[in-house]
Design goal:
With 224 residues, the chain is an alpha+beta fold. It has ten helices and four strands; from the N terminus they run βαβαββαααααααα. Strands 2-1-3-4 form a four-stranded mixed beta sheet, covered by helices on one side. Strand 3 and strand 4 form a beta hairpin. Helix 7 packs across helix 9 (184-194). The radius of gyration is 17 Å and the shape is globular.
Length: 224
């Protein structure tokens, strides 16, 4: 059985969780807290001293994108066509700045200052706003609607869908869902993925009070 080890939050493991579920493989979702993470690091259980990791019978795989590619292959979410496969990889690699946009704010202990700086990130000219504009432009260039222009939903879509819309769950002080109100292209993309039958089924038991509410169809209705 595979074991996915991460904190009890969507974060960088959520796309992997979806792919694992769609793969049909046996797997266990193992949650650890900060203390457990430190123990794993001190015991040398983390190849790059980071989470998530996927523990397999052959050994441990680290780095969320590498894990997603591995599991996505089994889930049928890695395109067979070499060009489309490369474009999906390109999109995943290009999302790096989005994942890092909040990093400088995590070490700020004063909540007022933390909220102020995070709000500024998504104001015109801020790093977060620039990322949203770029992603909206990339999605609008797709002839199929899927993030990387693939014929079908791919691992790039799982990465974008969870990585982008998970930012607005309320889990991050100062980042609210109404930030997306001016990004109609991203909201249309959200509707496409959230209503994909496999994604809709995956989140069928999630309620509005769950941190994963942002992945539900119509999640941002009324916020735009």
């Amino acid at each position: 059985m595979l074991q996915l080890v991460y904190f009890p939050a969507p974060g960088r493991a959520e796309a992997i969780r979806i792919a694992l579920e769609l793969s049909g493989m046996e797997w266990e979702d193992v949650s650890v807290d900060g203390a457990g993470f430190q123990v794993m690091k001190e015991n040398g259980e983390l190849p790059w001293d980071m989470l998530p990791v996927l523990i397999t019978p052959e050994g441990t795989i680290a780095e969320s994108s590498a894990i997603l590619r591995f599991v996505g292959q089994a889930a049928g979410l890695v395109p067979d066509d070499p060009y489309q496969r490369a474009k999906a990889d390109e999109f995943i690699d290009g999302m790096g700045p989005l994942a890092q946009v909040l990093d400088p704010t995590f070490g700020i202990p004063e909540i007022e200052e933390r909220v102020r700086l995070r709000k500024a990130l998504f104001e015109p000219g801020g790093g977060g706003a620039r990322n949203l504009e770029l992603l909206q432009r990339k999605v609008s260039q797709s002839q199929t609607g899927w993030a990387a222009g693939t014929d079908d939903m791919s691992i790039a879509d799982l990465k974008l869908f969870t990585g982008l819309f998970g930012l607005f769950s309320g889990n991050y002080d100062g980042i609210e869902g109404d930030v997306l109100s001016g990004y109609t292209g991203l909201l249309e993309y959200h509707a496409l993925v959230a209503n994909e039958p496999r994604i809709r089924e995956h989140y069928s038991n999630v309620g509005q009070d769950d941190i994963r509410w942002t992945f539900l169809p119509g999640a941002f209705d009324g916020r735009n």
